[in-house]
Amino acid sequence: MFLSLSYSQKENYHWIFGNGTELDFNQTPPNVTPNNSLGAFCPSTASISDSAGNLIFYANADTVWTKNHVVMENGEGLQKALFGSFINTDGSTVYSIPDPASKSSYYIFFHLFVSKKMFYVKINMNKNMGLGKVVEKHILPYETPYQPLSIALHKNKKDYWLVFINKNQKLNALLINGSGVSSTPVISELGKSFPKLPPYQTYGRLLFSHSMDYMIITVFDEFNGSNKPSPICFYSFNGKTGKAQCLWKMLHQNNFIRGVEFSPNDKYLYISGAKINHGVYQVKLNDDRSILPTNNIQLSSEETFDLQLAPDGKIYFIENYRYLRVINNPDLEGTLCNIGDNKLYLHGKTVNFYFPHFVQRLPNVFSHNISCNIVEFNFPYRQPPTPTAQHKQQTKT
Description:
Elements: E1 14-17, E2 21-24, E3 31-33, E4 46-49, E5 55-59, E6 64-66, H1 78-83, E7 93-98, E8 105-112, E9 117-124, E10 133-140, E11 149-153, E12 160-165, E13 170-177, E14 180-181, E15 186-189, E16 203-208, E17 214-220, E18 230-237, E19 244-252, E20 256-262, E21 268-274, E22 279-284, E23 295-300, E24 304-309, E25 315-319, E26 323-327, H2 389-392
Antiparallel strand pairs: 1-2, 2-3, 4-5, 5-6, 7-8, 8-9, 9-10, 11-12, 12-13, 13-14, 13-15, 16-17, 17-18, 18-19, 20-21, 21-22, 22-23, 24-25, 25-26
């Protein structure tokens, strides 16, 4: 018998990511195992667990594996099956969600960043004695050369929004509900403050707050302007209609932002990055979210990649490719958030850029009582560049 989930509190309990590393959050601290089937370079993955925290399956940008770490039936060579040949996995984005129409079905959405293509597959977990089978494969008729893409939970807590930037630099939101994936996107303007993007690959992140009421987009053009500050654009998001509106833009001194995450209480934004002014930063959001924040604190100064909120209520981040570190109390301001000195051992493996992608969860899923010693760090406060009048102005979209 197959144990399924619809909107589970434990579907993010297994993090399976690049170079064969897995974090299992059914234990505290999480158990680290190096026994999955991902290759040495796998920058984007998705994994999903059931309501008891048991792994169901995981995927990269071309293959789906079962919980037993073998290829799922019809789950290999997805790109060739849809496009005639393997394209790439570099810079790709992968998300997995439950099917709102069925307790035994799941979707996996793929964005092949370099080729600008998008597609999705559907999995029936009733097949093969609960190990699953890929039963549908579909190309999404949208082209986007921009990496920021994410999935948000609908306000009804059952359906979803697939959100991305199309080639015309418009924000598109596709509804995923019991009828399937909508063919008609809800379109929003990115806003006057949003930077004009080149017509080729632009890296970045798109992330929703845990309340689903706000959204942040970061962008970075790797091939032009590597010494320039990174723009961060903050939006209100209507989880019922899929519409977004730009509230403000700031220029951050970290010039290559690799990760963004909200604290569980949505009061703080954590930013990580590499290259110039790399490290982890905490930005305190104003109570009035439409006002540009000015409280920007640097918490670490090492080259840092993705960071993500975990089921234990802590934020984990990748540092120097080699290990993971932890923000123990992300709901607290400044050094009280407590970046621990200990590094999570990964059995000698290096780590690629990103953790697996999950749909953001509401704050009340974090029920752990966290008790940590507070470690004080003597990092200087760094304020972002003085905003111009244009940046301060609330954008009408």
